[in-house]
Structures are given as C-alpha cells and as structure tokens.
Amino acid sequence: MKETIRIASGQGFWGDLLTAPVDQVTKGPVDYMMMDYLAEVTMSIMQKQRRKDPRLGYAKDLVELTEQIIPLCVEKKIRLITNGGGVNPVACAEAILGAAKELGVQKLKIGIVVGDDILDRIDDLRKQGIDLKNMESGRSVETVRERLQSANVYFGAWPIVEALKQGAQMVITGRTTDTGLTLAPMIYEFGWKEGDWDKLAAGTVAGHILECGGQASGGNFSADWKAVPDMAHIGFPIAEAYANGEIIITKHENTGGLITMQSVKEQLVYEIGDPRKYITPDCVADFTTIQLEHAGKDRVKVSGVKGKPATEFFKVSMSFLDGYTTFGTLTYSWPDALEKAKKADEVLRTRIKNLGLEFEEIRSEFVGYNSSHGHLAANAKDVNEVALRVGVRSQDYDSVERFGKEIAPLILTGPPSVTGFAGGRPKPSEVISYWPALIPKSAVKPEVIIKEIS
Amino acid sequence: MKVRLLDICHGRSGDKGDTANIGLIARKKEFYPIIEKYVTAQVVGEYFGQMVLGKVERYELPNLWALNFLLHNALGGGGTKSLKNDAQGKTLAAALLRMQIDIKEKIEY
After folding, report:
1. Cβ atoms within 10 A of the Cβ of A100, count?
2. How many domains does one find in chain B?
3. Among the residues of A191-260, which ranges form H helices?
4. Under a CB-based contact definition with an 8 Å cutoff, are residues A93 and A112 in contact?
C-alpha cells in the first residue's frame, strides 16, 4: 500500500482552460488526474443534446483532450477520473476507446459509473413514497413534473473506488460530486474504510480545494491579484495526499500562479453553506477544524480535519423548463453616457408597454456604472461609457422574441453616440431551473461497467 | 477609527441557487476578532439593503480567520433564470470589501 499519492486537478468546469490537463501530466509527476465538468445546469444541456442524438450527452471536449494525453497517461500509469460522462457516460467511454484505438493504444480499460440518471424512474419512485419535493422551497415535484429536463443522483467516491479496484485506467461517471473525484483514489490507495470519517473528510476537503482548478492557485484571487506570477501559464493545483489524512496542496514547479495560505483559504470558503456541515455522500466534513500551514514555496499543508458519518440520503439534482429569456446590450459614450443609457431604457420600456408584451421581469443594468454593486457603487457622474443591458423573462416565447426586435431600433431612434450592437437580434434562450431534492441511498444503486481495448 | 474592509480582508463569493455566499477572510490573525465583532449578519444585511430580498446568515471559521455569509434570495432567481449580469454573485465579495466599519480598537495595517 502506498504512503503518498499525487492527485492533479485538470478541469474545474466544462469550458475550462484546455491546456491545463496537458500541463498537469507533462510538467511533473502525478499519479491521478481528476477533471470536473458538471455544474447544476450542465446535465439539462447534456440531456437536450442526447435527445437530438443518442450518441451525445457528455462533455465532447473530453474526447479531444483524452486523445492528446492518453498515450502518455498509459505509459506513465496516470489514472484519469472524471464526471465528464454527463448523461451518457457509456457513449463517452466508447468515443474515447474509438479514438484511442485509432491512435494505436494497445490496451486501455475504462470503468464507467452509471445509475445516477433517474429521469425515467420518477413516477416509480414517487409510487414508492419518495416524494422528491424541493428541499429548499418544500414544493411538490408535481408542479414541475411535465417540465422536467433531467434528474440525477449525486454519487460520491465509492463507485469510483470500485472501478479503480477493477483496474480501470480511466473512470468516467455521470453525476458524481466534485469532491468524490479526488477522494476516491485516496480511499483506493490507502485502504480507507467507511467509518474513517476524519480521513474521508480530509480527502473531501482536498477535493473542494481542487474542484475549481486554477481558483486555488492564483486565479480569481482577491488577496493580491497583482502579485500572481505568470497568470498566462497558471499551474492548476495538485493534492499530495498521505495515508494518515494529511494533504499538501501544491503545483508543478515550472508553472505560473501561486499556492499560498490565502489562495487556499479563498477556495475553501467558496460556495459553502454551514462550514460545520459540508455534506457529501461520503461524509460530513467540518471546515472549522481545518488547519493550514505554510510548508514551503507553493506548498500548503492541510491537517486536523474532522468528519462525521455520511447521511442516509443522496442529493438529487433535477432541472425543469422555466420559460425564456433574452438580453440586449447597447453602449453609450461620453458626453452624458449614463443619462443617454437611462433615456434609452425609458424609451425601450415605453415601446414594450405599447406592444402589450408580458414579462415576469424586466431588468435594466448599467454596465460600467453599477451593474455589479448596485447602490453601493461609487457615484461617478461623468463616466466615459456605459453599456445598457436589458434582460427580460417570460413563460411566453413570442413576447421574448418580440422584445429582441426592439433593441436595434434604439440606435437610430434613441439617444446619440451609441454603438456595440453586433451579432443580430438577441434570440430567446430557454430558462432551465434547478430543483434540488433528497433520495434514500437504498433507492438507487450505482453500477460499474468496464469497457476496454485489450 | 474608520477602516475599509478591503484593507484588512480578502474574500470570494459565489452561488448556490438563489443564495449567494461571501467568504470574508482577515488578512492578519489580529484582524479576525475585529471583523467577528463588527461585521455581523445584521450589519451586512443593512449594508446590502434591497440587493438581498431574504435573510442574511453568518457562520464563523476562526481557524481560517474567516466569516461565511449566506445572502438568501440575492441573485434574481439564480442559475439561468436570473436577469442579472452577475447572476452568480461573483462580484459580491468585492462589494462587501468596499464597506467601511467604525471601530473602537486601534489597528495597524
């Protein structure tokens, strides 16, 4: 059994820096690389793609990326773990195996975690008494049943551990928690057991630090962003994990960015609720027990983490169709930039009213003036330019589409020195809303499927 | 003395549905008791005013010299529903960092 492993963060979201995972496997030693692709609304986008073409529904970038790195990963025995399989992890694995075969890879075993997709089981589950009510609002799922786009259970680390045990060089999952992707190799390599709550919590904390890629290593760093070296070549974080549950957060030496107590702290507080109860399917981690220590240049030690037993439930992430939106933006220049933008907004609203269009909300923001900080923004009177950004939302597609035709006319029929209108009329986009719920762990069963070139 | 939070803290913000979270972190250990004392949930709620429609909750992480604020119903519906330019509350940490507090203690920064 190993005493230490190095787990690299390769992607923090679908659309992240494409060179990062390549750097992680070429610029220094790592044993594993995790790549997180899924956000709350990603699954619904993938469901839509799969409905159009049953061979799709996963992060397509992942196939191209794997092509680039898989021969090297096979050679160096770097194992890849990702939730980029989305709503179609089997098709994702098949595409990757096909690409690898063409590259002349002789041997490749992929473990696929399935069983998280419960969209087709909703009615059965409800008959069993599992109500899937919204865990925030308490509303019944009946109110959105007909508009559901996706429903996925968040699995944790254990199904990935099973795939690793079966010898998978790469593990592709559907909806797995971001933290589970990092925790799984620690459980597998160090022989951690269910019940080792402190260790599982430590691995979960490491996963939280890694799950947003460069955000732990100098990206989006508010403490001192000007001091971040060579941001263009930012090195993504690496967790050097030890069997006793201690973790060193670091990065490859010849990369940009930085790992400091401050960069790690900023990521630790990112998108958390009650820090004493960071709930995952694997454990409940207590973030108030985390001890950080400077351990050399670009090295921060994480220790002391306490955990509590996992709950009896999995979280379910569902999404439903919730109307349409569109946005129009126009830029007004000095003189009187803000006044002009406000006048244009007034004209636009009068015209919308005259057309009798119905919206749940119309929101106007003045980008460059106060769109981010509202009334807290400093009161600059003579700004050089302001972008008027108006968004609308409605359950009625036609109203939103008609609104889109009211932006361009403002250029010749509104206040002067206006620009920034390119790319045609703003088109309606579907609004996909998020529906979180809980499901007893006994009601769903993760499964591991192996596919391979041998 | 008057202190702007930006001078003694850093932070990061993000979203969970229609709730924004702001992690406010003291730059030095000795600044943590100051923010713990003065930057209460109530003060933050009043500061953001109508930008936050729901309640403001605060959690303490003295081990990280940090406070975590949850701002409920602050993101115009959240997710893809929100019409806000900053639908995920990414700039709200900076908004909090521009807050000035009036403190009895004397500190150097």
Report:
1. 23
2. 1
3. 197-210
4. yes
Q: What 3-state class would DSSP assign to B69?
A: strand
Q: Which two tokens stand for residue A237?
A: 């974080």
The candidate with the shortest Cα–Cα distance to A411, out of A333, A336, A295, is A333
Q: How many CA atoms lie within 13 A of A324 on its CB side?
A: 16
**Structure tokens belonging to residue A15:** 């659309």
CB contact under 8 Å between B76 and A271, yes or no, is no
- State the Cα–Cα distance between residues B66 and A121, nearest whole angstrom: 43
Q: Is B17 left (phi over 0), alpha (psi -120 to 50) or beta?
A: left
- Cis check: omega of the bond before A440, within 30 degrees of 0: no
Cβ distance of B59 and A372 shorter than 8 Å: no
Question: What is the longest distance spanned by two Cα atoms in chain A?
Answer: 74
Does the distance separating the beta carbons of B25 and A431 come in below 8 Å? no
Tokens of A204: 């979960």
Question: Is residue B39 assigned to a domain?
Answer: yes
pLDDT in tens, A83-127: 999 999 999 999 999 999 999 999 999 999 999 999 999 999 999
Does the beta carbon of A313 lie under 8 angstroms from any beta carbon of chain B? no
A298 and A327 inside one domain: no
Of A268, A273, A275, the CB nearest to B16: A273
Whole-angstrom distance between the N-terminal and C-terminal Cα of chain A?
27
Residue A185 sits in the same domain as residue A50:
yes
Residue ranges, chain A, pLDDT below 70: none
Q: What separation, in Å, do the N-terminal and C-terminal C-alpha atoms of chain B show?
A: 12
Measured distance CA(A55)–CA(A94) in Å, rounded: 9
CA-only gyration radius of chain A, Å: 24
Which CATH number goes with the domain that contains B60?
Answer: 3.30.70
Structural domain contains residue A442: no
Supply the range of the domain harboring residue A221. Answer: 4-116+154-311
- Based on the domain organization, do A296 and A336 belong to the same domain? no
Within 8 A of B81 by CB-CB distance, chain A residues are 322-323, 325, 393, 431, 433
Find the domain containing B30 and state its range: 2-76+87-102
pLDDT tens by residue, B43-76: 999 999 999 999 999 999 999 999 999 999 999 9
Partner-chain contact A392 B83, CB within 8 Å: yes
